[in-house]
Amino acid sequence: METQREKTHTCGTICLKYLLFLFNILFWLAGGVVLAVGVWTLVEKSDYISLLNSSFYSVSAYILIAAGVIVIMTGIIGCCATLKEMKSLLIVYLILLLCIFLLEIIAGVLAYITYQHCFPFCYQLDEELRQNLMGTMQQKYKQPGQESITEAVDKLQQEFKCCGSHNSSDWTDSVWIQSTQNVVPDSCCKTPSELCGIRDHPSNIYKVEGGCIKKLEEFILSQLYILSAVGIGIAFLQLVGMMFTCCLYRSLEEEPY
């Protein structure tokens, strides 16, 4: 009877080990996704950082990268603790999961509080971003030594199908526009070609209400929604992982030598 009890208990431990190992694989992959999003944001969208004159975008990318690295390292520790059945390492792993989970909760609460108490400062921040983008376009576009800004503006207008910070009339006071025959840059055209920006007509250029700043805001919001969903998914995974870790630790404690 005793032999049968030990055999059943061993099978339970093995099942817990494989379940926790599977969880760690999923957790590790989730960390990889977060890390990849952070790197992609920093590499592919870094041009926009210089246009916004704000460190928020780059700081967000670095936070994602750091979070991804921490999650991946935690997943590796979890795999080692599970496979080697090291109870002390399981405790360290459980503490790490708990800390990350608490940080996610705190970050979510702070984000909610910040959003709720944002007004009227949100409008002021939004207007400041509009003015910064418009100033950058008007003063730095196609000016000596501002090649990266020029490239970023052209990429922004083509990728988001927009023209100007608020609308195409923002280009009227541009230093470059005043020295050429163009009304808007060629990147404002629906079908870009040399000197296509001479004709300021809705059939030729993008006349998007709200301009490029609105498109940028919509893009950033969509990214935040995606990250929120990923964060909720990771938080759920962590709860499952903590449960499996506690069960495995208890099983190893009770298992006879």
From TrEMBL:
What's a single GO BP term from this record? cell migration
The source's domain of life comes to Eukaryota
Report the locations given in the UniProt record: Cell membrane; Membrane
Q: How does it sit in the membrane?
A: Multi-pass membrane protein
Membrane-traversing stretches: 21-42, 62-83, 90-115, 224-249
Q: What is its main location?
A: membrane
Q: Name one Pfam family in it.
A: Tetraspanin
Task: Give the protein name, as stated in the record.
Answer: Tetraspanin
Q: Which organism is it from?
A: Amphiprion ocellaris
